[in-house]
Design brief:
Blueprint lengths: L7 E5 L4 H12 L3 E6 L2 H10 L6 E5 L5 H15 L4 E4 L14 H29 L2 E6 L3 H4 L5 H21 L4 E6 L14 H10 L8 H12 L11 E2 L9
Parallel strand pairs: 1-2, 1-4, 2-3, 4-5, 5-6, 6-7
The chain binds 1,4-dihydronicotinamide adenine dinucleotide.
Length: 248
């Protein structure tokens, strides 16, 4: 039986990479899926991959814009009759040594990778409360646990997401909302195209599995957290499909 039949999932960052793979998997598991991203063309490409039986909708939104996030979530709830699951996979990554990092570069990354996560969780929670509960799944990174060079803003944002999710898990548990992070290791998506070859070579050498993952290898972790009974006992947790890069 389809694991998400009858559920409505909003996937933010759905236009590419991990978010797109999660949206396609959730659709194939019977969920209605609302695809949200700042890239309209990317959302349409993902829509073509969502071949499940339930409804799919598209929402163009920039997660740094709180009012736009609130409006997009309200539109998704209206269109699908409510929201049960939020996945936030929107993210940016710019490699720059900390001694060359400008405040503008810092703000850009924190704005998308941390504040954007706050916006989506903040404005989805009332819809889930209306529904009697829900699941919030945020894509953090193993770098938020382990650290990494050339990415101080990104590392700080991802550590922030892991902390934020613990706080949300505690505050939202009385509303039957479970909140967890996924902290993948390096995954072959457009996000890491901008990393230097040196960075990637060094990282690959650190991995016990010896290779980067694929978005399709991360998506089942989101399904585990979203579905019942597989996700019922997880809240405030950080799950690590990370090629062994971190062993907490
Ligand atoms: P990706 O670049 O393929 O996808 C990221 C998506 O976020 C894109 O569709 C992009 O349009 C969207 N996005 C960026 N800024 C946005 C904004 N302001 N508003 C709305 N949408 C926005 O990257 P990937 O790899 O799929 O990344 C997904 C998440 O996974 C990110 O949070 C990333 O930090 C995280 N992650 C990725 C890893 C990797 O090695 N690829 C490793 C660990 C975590």
């Amino acid at each position: 039986m389809a694991q998400l039949e009858g559920k409505v999932a909003v996937v933010v960052g759905a236009a590419s990479g991990i978010g797109a793979a999660i949206a396609a998997l959730f659709s194939s598991e019977g969920a209605q899926v609302a695809l949200a991203d700042r890239s309209a063309a990317g959302v349409e490409a993902t829509r073509a991959r969502c071949i499940g039986p339930a409804k799919v909708s598209s929402h163009v939104v920039d997660v740094t814009d709180a009012a736009a996030v609130e409006a997009a979530l309200a539109a998704a709830a209206e269109e699908h009759g409510g929201i049960d699951i939020l996945v936030n996979s929107a993210g940016i990554l710019e490699e720059v040594p900390v001694l060359e990092m400008t405040p503008e570069a810092w703000d850009r990354t924190i704005g998308v990778d941390l504040t954007g996560v706050f916006h989506t969780a903040r404005y989805v929670a009332p819809h889930m409360i209306e529904r009697g509960g829900g699941r919030i799944i945020n894509v953090a990174s193993q770098l938020g646990i382990k650290g990494g060079t050339g990415l101080a803003h990104y590392v700080a944002a991802k550590a922030g997401v892991i902390g934020l999710d613990k706080a949300l898990a505690l505050e939202l548990a009385p509303h039957n909302i479970l909140v967890n992070s996924i902290a993948p290791g390096p995954i072959e998506t457009p996000l890491i195209d901008g990393l230097s070859e040196d960075w990637k070579r060094d990282k690959r050498a650190e991995l016990p599995i010896g290779r980067f993952g694929t978005a399709e290898e991360v998506a089942p972790t989101a399904l585990l957290l979203a579905a019942s009974p597989s996700g019922d006992l997880y809240t405030g947790q950080t799950l690590g499909p990370n090629s062994g890069d971190v062993m907490p």
